[in-house]
Amino acid sequence: MLPTGYARKALAMILVLALFRLWLAFGLELGNDESYYWMYSRQLKPNYFDHPPMVALLIRLCTFNGWLQSPGALRLGAVLSAAGAAWLLFQAVRTLHSARAGFYASVLYQASFYAGVTAGVYIMPDSPQMLFWTGALWMLARILRNERDWNNWLLFAVLAGASIMSKVHGAFLCSGLALFVLFHRRSWLRLPQLYVAAALVLLIASPILAWNIRNDFITYRFHSRRVAVDHFNLRFSYALKEAIGQLVFNNPVNVVLVIGALLHWKALPSESRSRLPLFNWIALPHAGFLLFVALFRDTTLPHWSGPAYVTLLPLAAARLAEGPRRRFLPRAVVGAATTYVLTLFAWMAVVQHYPGTYGSKDPKTLGTGDISLDLYGWQEASVAFNRLYEQELRAGRISTGTPIVASYWWGAHVEYYFCRPNAIPFRAVGPVRDIREYYWRPESSGPLPAAAFCILASDEHYELPLEGFSQKKIAYRITVTRSGKPAHTFVVWKLFR
């Protein structure tokens, strides 16, 4: 049966915005983080140093087992996952409240810069996570209607487990459910479905634990350094930075709608007020925990809060749906979508056409402070470097297989653009805290080469991998221009043992 009414409207908006995201995905070069997850996908594992494996599986699936390697192909999974997540959120909110509210929620979801860019354009661990997260929210909505249905509980467990296998933040789904049961549904403690679902979640997420047992719990030690509070010197500037980041990444319009709905909680129908606390218990501790950590440490990242605000969108959508039905979409939803689309058009224009750089103009640090350069000029510099590399080979100044080395995990950006298309070996050199997942790559062990190249962009601040290399010299400088003006320079170093 073909969808009708609000379901058809939701699908139409999902298609339109998915095509918009697809244009962005194919029009922007890969960023540092995305290149790192591309590296994940080259060697599938049950867990990686800093994240579970689902992003690598998604890349493998959408690139036909690595056959396609373009930025757009690598990001295809993110675009498709965002479309699927928007539909699953529609289903969740339709189950909780109404199809009208579900339609509003699906549009607000796609208008979030977190859901519609970080997880919906860029290929990140958040990309598969949000597909499973919203699916789990739908199953929770169904459980609230019929807590004895085994299918809903088992599907929730599978989706929550898959969310954790995408990113450990998925555990907030389970902790939120546990808090809701303790404070609102203690009768559920007598349900065998609850305990079977909990066991299934643990089983699905067990590869993370098994890998960490074999590797001295290195993932947990790494992440604990980012969120553990080891002193109580308040830093309100850090918390303010985190709060502003949450506001911006989740779309200011969406955040205002969520806060307004929380403040007008009693205006919602009693049935909604009895069900939506489950979503609040998932979301509010999540966002609150990050703000608490930010009071003491400047290590939180604003996109970490994204799933929390997505979980609160049903509340905002339900409040909007209680209002008069006068137009296709309420002004607030149109405002959120317009803010999203116009901002991304502007971002694409800056990345592709801004004259030179809005960052540092000093030749030594050209482009520093210009985040758009993470997505611009790498392909052009790669072509130029390959010509220089071939010249070095023909002149006999280097031997075949002379590698490019890097001392940090963001060297994956260099590997993707400079090594992959030119069949040049790559090696990360340094301690595990710096090279991260590269530490487990076979090519990162063994004796160092007699000579190697190292490529450092002028807008980034990484050190040369000098351990094991006694000599260094600048061999070339590759300057990339944008709209006719210098944007950033790639400094090519030669290192010798």
UniProtKB/TrEMBL annotation:
GO terms for biological process: lipopolysaccharide biosynthetic process. The chain crosses the membrane at residues 73-90, 102-124, 153-182, 194-213, 243-265, 277-296, 328-350. The keyword Cell membrane applies. The keyword Membrane applies. One of its GO terms (cellular component) is plasma membrane. It is found in: Cell membrane. InterPro entries: LipidA_mod_glycosyltrf_83 (IPR050297), RgtA/B/C-like (IPR038731). It comes from the Bacteria. It is a multi-pass membrane protein. Keywords: Cell membrane, Glycosyltransferase, Membrane, Transferase, Transmembrane, Transmembrane helix. GO terms for molecular function: pentosyltransferase activity. PANTHER family: MANNOSYLTRANSFERASE YKCB-RELATED (PTHR33908), MEMBRANE PROTEIN (PTHR33908:SF11). This is Glycosyltransferase family 39 protein. It comes from Flaviaesturariibacter aridisoli. The lineage of its organism: Bacteria, Pseudomonadati, Bacteroidota, Chitinophagia, Chitinophagales.
